[in-house]
Amino acid sequence: xxxxxxxxxxxxxxxxxxxxxxxxxxxxxxxxxxxxxxxxxxxxxxxxxxxxxxxxxxxxxxxxxxxxxxxxxxxxxxxxxxxxxxxxxxxxxxxxxxxxxxxxxxxxxxxxxxxxxxxxxxxxxxxxxxxxxxxxxxxxxxxxxxxxxxxxxxxxxxxxxxxxxxxxxxxxxxxxxxxxxxxxxxxxxxxxxxxxxxxxxxxxxxxxxxxxxxxxxxxxxxxxxxxxxxxxxxxxxxxxxxxxxxxxxxxxxxxxxxxxxxxxxxxxxxxxxxxxxxxxxxxxxxxxxxxxxxxxxxxxxxxxxxxxxxxxxxxxxxxxxxxxxxxxxxxxxxxxxxxxxxxxxxxxxxxxxxxxxxxxxxxxxxxxxxxxxxxxxxxxxxxxxxxxxxxxxxxxxxxxxxxxxxxxxxxxxxxxxxxxxxxxxxxxxxxxxxxxxxxxxxxxxxxxxxxxxxxxxx
Length: 458
Prior knowledge:
Elements: H1 3-16, H2 19-40, H3 46-62, H4 64-77, E1 81-85, H5 88-101, E2 106-109, H6 113-117, H7 120-126, E3 130-133, H8 136-144, H9 160-171, H10 179-196, E4 199-202, E5 206-208, E6 213-218, H11 222-228, E7 232-238, E8 242-243, H12 249-261, E9 268-272, E10 286-292, H13 296-300, H14 316-320, H15 322-327, H16 338-348, H17 351-354, H18 356-359, H19 366-370, H20 377-390, H21 396-409, H22 412-417, H23 420-430, H24 432-435, H25 448-457
Parallel strand pairs: 1-10, 2-3, 2-4, 4-7, 5-8, 7-10
Antiparallel strand pairs: 5-6, 6-9
Helix pairs in contact: 2-12, 16-20
């Protein structure tokens, strides 16, 4: 078993027994679960909307090479600059190069999972550049030195009391501040950072092919300020975020907000088509879009797994997953947690290091049921398991166990020999890994075949 798998098991064991953690997560996810059904009422036929979104993403991913080139053509025609990054190191190198050219010492950054994926803040810190997270949840996590806990809600695992205590320790504020007062404290601090920053960094929810633009959706307005205040705007986005047309946003923005937070549409929705144009009074002087691969083409080349690239990062599958709600986001040891993280992480990184995530699932199908774009997540988890075995990553004991099972299952006599008493001894006595977190199993003393024969004789 790999070190990442052992760490996952150790953290899961601790977190699943943490009742205070479970209380906070159930409370916060419960708030979303109350609102999502209300948001869905805006759709005349929500199933049809999901189906159309899936078909649109299918078209975008199947023609991704053409869509990306089309985006680059339109975007660069307005003075924007496109950088293709094959991996995280290339992306970081290009970003640091831009920072050096602009003599950047301070920058502001909006919420972006892809920047977490490439560990961009660590790179900034090593190079003496102050990077400030401007999303409130991300800012809380940055103050606490933690990675985001959830795709949509970075500080979901913290209560208002936890945040008040953190602000007291890090910022010297009174310990009894209300959520509204804590937000105002953060806003006062962050507003100064926008003015001081030489560069603004954002992600993008969607890349729009036919007009060469990026679309950003948010609830706080911080991403819009990161775009507008600094003289240089850098967008880092995974190539899978492509949608073919501007008109597709009429479907995707409401889907993302409804399935993510229960809103009909988020508060701020911005389409950025490039740097400041002649005659315009605001916006950045220069704008860069870094198109990141970082293992996505590995997924693209798999006819089955490429479906996972349809994901719009709404976080609905995390909120529905019984495993996620018990072990939490940090336990996964990867940027993307929950069902979608368990599907894509073994393919974005090394299967050997992260195949255990695909086994950390009940396969209940709740993730597939709630997915905004109808990705068959539970089937992709099974496919990951199949791929890991094909790659020879199964242990010797596992291989032998399945060979014995196959041998026995093909011979009725051998199956009947494995009566309840024998099964009880093997499973409850020998399978220590199974027994560790489960109560004893009590098998029937007779097989179904034996009982059926007895019934026919009677």
